Structures are given as structure tokens and as C-alpha cells.
Amino acid sequence: MGSALTNLQRFASIAGAMRVGRVDVLATSAVRDASNGPDFVAEIERRTGYTVQIIGGDEEARLSALGVVSGFPDADGVVGDLGGGSLELIDVADQQLGAHTTMPVGPLRIGEVEPSKRRKMEALVDGYLDGAPWLVNLEGRTLYAVGGAWRSVAKAHMAAVNYPIEVIHGYTIDRATLSDFLSTLALQSKKSIRATPGVSRRRADTMATAALVLQRVLGRGKPDRVVFSAFGLREGCIFDRLPAEERHQDPLLVAAVSIARETNRFAPPAETVFNWLKPLFGDFARRDERLVRALCMLSDMAWAEHPSYRGEHAFLRISRLPVAGLDHADRVFLGLGMLARYSGHVQLEAARKVEGLLDPERRQLAVQVGLALRLGLTLSGGATALLRRTRIESRDDGFALTVAPEAVVLMGEVVERRVQSLSDALQRPVVLSVRPGRNGKR
How far is Cα 145 from Cα 273, in angstroms, rounded to an integer? Predict the structure, then answer.
């Protein structure tokens, strides 16, 4: 308790120095159900001046689910938030919250797993799960795992398989693979778990219990996969306070606009560039369209870097962006697209390590989009309004890229090379020419 109070005082001091206008302090089951909870809350309020709101289990579940929705707008499945004192489960679909329950099976409440009492602990968790018959609706869907204890399980699995992306949010494991890993984890000693890279000693000591609870939830709900979320109750609290119109915005595209305004030479060129290159691809799948739009917005983000390192810089930054609305395959798509945009290829060691996370068709699309952006930004010199003087049209045998007579100066040897690279990637000819003027002359 002393450590928590010290950290809260530190936080309050820093927030005051930052002149933060509003601070919401929420206490969950660990405080709600503790015998000294009221004394702890009173001391927080005395030391910080903040008012502490002790929320109930239903509200805890609701805010956790909203946090996942804010991080994965298309979430469809069940959110599971394992805290120190309780597990919240809530059904989510179409950004709507459905059936939910809270159960007192947090690691701090039920204690550490020991061989002699493992079956008893499993029976305890199963008994509480019996009170959530709606969990059968999870079968074939996704379990979104929230909370530091379960994030530590994800870190341990990443270390075990030498996973190439060190980002927890969006890390995805199919049920069978995770179930096997949890069984292996149960056999490890506490010392062995503590040696896991990236897992703190505090989390290591509760990991076996967290793994047991997760294993029982997997067995009962039978989801196809588990997606780990770094977004939970805290982000849900923020999301809950946003105006309705902002809650329905795509978090990736909102972030892309913000980053583009900070890094691009000119205003974010999203619509102009997207409309210009779209004839090359026709209608994108919904999942890919938002990624292509983000690439268009960010297509000038590395202009200030040294030319020899623009591709590498853009790849590393965009594939590691701390933004919501992305799974790991999406991150690779964006990274490869940006690498192709700046380098004209994706031959980078860091890219080779992660490209297998993306299926071949989407990998090819990312590179093609990147090369189209490379052509468009070269043709316009970054002043993308000039692209309105050019046009891409689909032809039976390929594509025609025509330039208005008054914009013929945009053409040149470098542009022709970019056209050829794009043509090679599309495996269809792209023919560059000057569009006839009104009098028929070029």
C-alpha cells in the first residue's frame, strides 16, 4: 500500500506541473473488496486532493470492453480483463456491449498455483464460469485478453517463439497453440518464469495463476484465437468521455492525420493521392482500404531524413507506431508499403523478419501500393495537387498514365523508371503519355 500511495503522490505532482485540467481516479475490485479499501481511498484523497471513484464490477467490465473497442473498432468476441482481484468478461460486437459477468478469480485473490491444489483451483474457476452460460457464444470468435497478468503471458510466448515484433497490442495466437503453451507454462518453476525476457518479477510470480484462469476460459469458450490488448479500463474511461462522433472515427486514420501534419511537407494528401492511384487496384477489401488511406496520408513522412535511410526509417517507425486499430499483420502491411514507397523494394533485414506475418497476396498489394506512391510523389515532387493534372485509367492490356499538356514538364527519366517499376510489380504494362489537348495537339 505504501508503494501505491507514493506513486500516486508522484503522479499527482507531475499532473499538477503539467496543468492537467481533469483527472479521473478509479478504483477497481482490488480496492473495492479489500478490508482496508476505505482507509486506502481516504489516504489517497488526503495526499493528492483527488476524489476516488470506486466502481462496481459491472462498470469495470463495461469500461474494459470500451477500451478494447477503442483499440479494435471491429472487435467481435468476448473481452476478458484479468485484474489482481477479479476477471471481467463481456461480449462485444459492432461496438455494442452485450452479456457480461465479473468473477473473483484474480491472482491476488485466489493465490499462487501449487501442484497440490491445482485441481481445486481449476474447480473454483470452473464454478464461476458456470455462472456465465452465455460464454458458449464465444466459440469460433475472438477472446480479447486484457490486463497486465495476461500481457505477461503474451510476452512469455513471444520470447519462446522468438517473435519479431515487440508490440503486445494486437498479438494474436490461435487457441490450440496458446493452450499448448499454457500447459507447458504450468510445468515451469517460478525461477524459470522469472528469467523470461520482458516479464517483471511481480508479474512472474502470478503468471501461473493467470495462465490457469486463461486455460479454463479457453476450454469453456472455445474461441478461434486470442488477441492481446494493451487497451483496457483506462482507455475505456477516456473513450467513454469522447463525443459520439469521435467514438466512431477510425483511430488509425485519426492518428495518421495527426502524424502527417507533424511530418509532411504539405497538408496530408490523402484523398488526392488515394483517388489518383485507386484505378490501379479497383475496390479494396475494407480491411485494406483503411491501410492504403493511411499510407497515402503518411506518404511524405520521411522527406526530411537522409535519402539513404528514408526507407528504413519509415519502415521502422510506421511498423511500430503506438496507435490503435492495428493488428500485427496490418503493421507489416504499412511497413512494407512505406519501405517500397521510399526504397523501391523491400529488401531490408528488418522487413524479412516480419514479412511472413502477412499472407503473400496482401504482401504483394502493400508493395504495389508503395510503388504507386513512389511514382505519385516523384511525379508531383510532393506537391500532390499536381496529380490532378494526370490521370490513371485501366485498359484491357494494362493501364494508361496520361499527363495534361500543360504538365508535361513533370515527366522525365526518373518518372519513367518509377513507371517501369510499378508496371513490373503489377505484372501489367503502365503506359505513360501526354494527353491530347482540346485542339487534339499534344
Answer: 37
